[in-house]
Amino acid sequence: MAKNKNLIYIAISLVVFIVLAFLYSTPVFSGKQLFQHDIVQYRGGAKELLDYRANTGNETYWSDSMFGGMPTYQMGSQFKGDIIKKIDSNLNFLPRPVNYLFLLFAGFFLLGMVVVRNWKYALLGATFFGLSTYFYIIIAAGHNGKVNTIEYFAPLLAGILLVYIRKQYIWGFIVTTLFMGLQIAANHPQMTYYLFLALGFLFLSELIRAIQKKTPMKHFLISSGIIAASCVIGVGMNSQRIMANSEYVKETVRGKQILDNDSHTSGKSGMDKESMLMWSYGQLETLNLFIPRLMGGGSQEPEGKEIMNRVQELVQENVGSQAEMDRISKGFSGVTYWGDQPGTSGPAYQGAIVCFLALLGFFFASKKYRYWILGASILTILLAWGSNFMPLSDFFIDYVPFYNKFRAPSSILVVVELLFPLIAILGLYRFFTDEKLTEEYKQKILLYVGGGTLGFLLILLIFGKSLLGFATENEKTYFPPFLLDYLVDERYKLFRVDAIKAFIYVAITAAALFLTLKKKLNQNIALVVIGLVSLFDLWSVNKRYLNDENYVDKIFAENPFQTESSDLLAEKVQGNPNLESILSNVNINKTLETIAEKDKTHYRIYNQTLGVTSETNTSYFKASIGGYHAVKLRRYDDVLNEYINNVDSVKTPNILNLLNAKYMVFGGPEQPQVVPNPKANGNAWFVSDLKFVDTPNQEIKSIGTIDNKKTAVIASSDKSYFDNKPVQADSTAFITLTKYQPNELEFKSQSKTPQLAVFSEVYYPHGWKVLVDEKEVPYIKADYLLRAVHVPAGNHHIRMVFEPEVIEKGKWLSLLSFGLFILLAAFGIFWMNKNKKKEIVAEQKA
Length: 846
Hints:
The chain is of the alpha+beta class.
């Protein structure tokens, strides 16, 4: 009976999560969809992939849409036999973002049920975790892969704790394996990596407990073996994705450096430190886990527009010279954010109540949880500081495997956002239920922690201006007193409102706990009070960053690259900053569409109007020289940095010719100017001269100065390729593209002498095959980043096809791993049921 009652409460809790998720996302009831910046960029960059899938029913693992061409592994490609991804899709059945919110709530609820086995605390903890502000910020930005991965943090930890703490080996194996597989399928390795840094503390904690004989060593070894097997099988279910990405990442900006210069060392793996640590959390800024606007919140808070208007008025009234105006402009960044990061969409606010309860949890929670959670929390906070705590960052970058593959260390705070709600409910549960904790101890800790927290808030409120400053060093240097004083006052007001709220929320929570301790308030009522106040707190802060303005009509969400302006479009915009970007880009989109419709051949467009490396509007209509993607191929990124980001009037056009930029677009989005480029090299060309160079630096420097229509720059390491392969000039020779698909190109050639054909296609050493008259031949790299192949004299048919072997190998490993999981899970359940029947029979005989 009790079991059935518990199931009813669990079912009710799941319904509550669905209701909360829908209430937060009410625009979905009217058919509106989220307008997410990164998803807009994805739709542009993945257009060729999506069209190919729709038109052929097959998948292409290469696309020419961005950056001269790149694998689609990080662009939403689908893998055959990817069963675990289908399970992920089915779990995310609700409309976006309701699906994310529901799974964040439900996943932590499972974790709560494992650690305290009480639905009330699990429900409370689920709201603590599921309403963490950072999640709403990344949903608004369109970091769907990131939030999809975080969804599975809590249930994965639940599976591991089932094994280590609850000794439920079979169910623990099933849960751990399933959610390990789902986490990897969500495809955000950085988030998974950060979680496992924290899980390392759990492993060490269990090892120490076994050494101290607080738990049997046999249990520790069995548990560790089960979890290791679960993780291996979970990873194995994603073999295609992992193997393809592992192969790909070696050739990207996350792989080894190729060039030697001031910021790069040839052969060194990973990104340079400056890029990695650009988004480092300020040490003091960490307190915005507790007070959201400690540093102003985000760069564009709702109050920012009004403050900026007043700033402009003050400048007009008080500034009398251009020199002073120029000086002021040097200090400007964002009026509503003054932290250490270059800018931010909002704070990693965890909730005043959650942070307060987490502090209590470190005193009240069981030691088997307390120490590893404390250690993991401290480490991740210190790592989030990045460039603001270089001794630790340097150590991790230089010595901890894979850490240097990831940027934006501030995002490691997702670990704290998992662990603080966990330690909060663990402490709260023991506070209310554990009779070993004396009333005197509880009262003392509550007094010290509560009084200390409230006292700290009072100090910040009274002495905040002198302690926090409310201005950056740049602003203090360049702003005149009248402007600096105004900004400091306005920022202090933003901070003060949130600090007072935090004081009230903590006071209510502390009072509820104290009254319960004195038997003047029912425990259930106390939980309801804490839950409702925390819900109000987090909900109201989250609405600053993800609200009704983030939703737009379905037509704009699914087709953000509008090409026609109309009264209806203007009416729909109605001051919505998201839709304003659609309206402002109508002319450039129309221009790109016109180019693509008039010239349907295969070529690329160089578009300067929106920023070469920060837009995918071009890619939506035609292949682009630029694009928007965090994991670009290393060689292409090197060329971008050398010639495209630093424009040279002679060298840059040479590179654009090499990349077959047939059209160039200049000017602004409102009045774009199209300039045809008749000097573009075309899809392929024959060269008669070879320039051999010894180093990659010489390669990349040479391609900007040579006549690349006649000469190819070849690395000396490829000199042997030309043994018995002479190259001779023939002024009548030609090679032309006859068929184009993203993963297959066909050419016909004619020459009286042997030639070296250079293709305006990015060199990628894995998966591409070149066939001359249907016979596979070797190819080499030319001009630092292009493909080249020797072509004998005569008439020939040349075909390039992208058939990565890693996909087929990975498919079978994925299927075998999933099959092994099902087999072991079925056997485990069978064995468990068999033992239960034996126990029942034994009890009956007794």
